[in-house]
Amino acid sequence: MRIAIIGAGNVGGGLAASAIKAGHEVFVSAGNPASAQETADKTGATPAGSNTEAVGDADVVVLAVPGSAVADVVGELADSLTGKVVVNAANALTPDYSDLFTANTSLAESVQKQVPQARVVSALGTVFASRYADPIEGGQPVQAFMAGDDADAKATVGQLVESLGFRPVDAGSLRFARSLEEMAFLNISLNANNGWTWQSAFALVGPTTAQES
Ligand SMILES: NC(=O)c1ccc[n+]([C@@H]2O[C@H](COP(=O)([O-])OP(=O)(O)OC[C@H]3O[C@@H](n4cnc5c(N)ncnc54)[C@H](OP(=O)(O)O)[C@@H]3O)[C@@H](O)[C@H]2O)c1
Known about the structure:
This protein has helices spanning 10-21, 33-43, 51-55, 67-77, 107-114, 151-163, 177-194; strands spanning 2-6, 25-29, 46-47, 60-63, 85-88, 119-123, 136-137, 140-141, 143-148, 167-170. The chain has one domain: NAD(P)-binding Rossmann-like Domain (Rossmann fold, 3-Layer(aba) Sandwich). 37% of the residues lie in helices and 18% in strands. The model has no long low-confidence stretch (mean pLDDT 97). By secondary structure, the protein is an alpha/beta fold. The strands form two sheets. Strands 3-2-1-4-5-6-9-10 form an eight-stranded mixed sheet, sandwiched between helices. Strands 7-8 form a two-stranded antiparallel sheet. Helix 1 (10-21) packs parallel to helix 2 (33-43) and helix 4 runs parallel beside helix 5. It has seven helices and ten strands. The structure holds NADP nicotinamide-adenine-dinucleotide phosphate. Residues 6-12, 29-32, 35, 51, 64-67, 69, 72-73, 89-91, 93, 125, 128-129 line the site of NADP nicotinamide-adenine-dinucleotide phosphate (NAP).
């Protein structure tokens, strides 16, 4: 796949490295083009001088910027996102990390509302970037929850996360991005409040495969 990653920090850099390892073609942009260059040098991704240049003819566009920057980035990219699969990995954290700034919605739904011409999937926000390089726990792939209204887009993102070593779990319509963003916030709070090491990930236990008829 051709993947554009907007943001070259923990998420953008970690994702670029694992996507390149999995054989994808990766373009990366950042607020400062020097950051994109640095991440590209470390990962083998192609640096882009602007967000629009990164999107180009990518199959999948991943938003890996601070939640507070998402609306501006999406506004800037609006025209180039027509028909694209857009993965929102960003979380709507307030500056002091004490809450989410979304009320009765999610960041992913806000993105979908802002660019109805795009096919938005909420994914990767529930997994810490520290898990991207080797997403295996107890011999099992870490679960990567996804939510979205477009089945084809969700299937594409499922293939992408599976190629990175995760087990994709379809959490339902984009409405469930609210749940996923709350899960991400809970995991952040658990690590911040308990001195954990930013490695924990969610796993549903019990039967989580469809029953054969
Ligand atoms: N860290 C995690 O484990 C984790 C896991 C899941 C989800 N998330 C979410 O993913 C997002 C990114 O997290 P992070 O930890 O990777 O943050 P980060 O390390 O601070 O990186 C943010 C990146 O966004 C770039 N950026 C900022 N404004 C931009 C703009 N207008 N256009 C293009 N790029 C822009 C920054 O560019 P510069 O480098 O030039 O400043 C930087 O490369 C956040 O919403 C976070 O809540 C984080």
